[in-house]
Amino acid sequence: MIYIGDSMISNKEYDKLVQKYSHDSPIWKDCLMAFLIGGLICAIGQGFQNLYQYLGMNKDNAGSMVSVTLVFLGILLTFIGWYDNIAKHGGAGTLVPITGFANSIASPAIEFKSEGLVLGLGVKMFVIAGPVLVYGISASVLCGLILQILSLFGIKPL
Question: Where along the chain do its domains lie?
Answer without folding.
Answer: 26-127
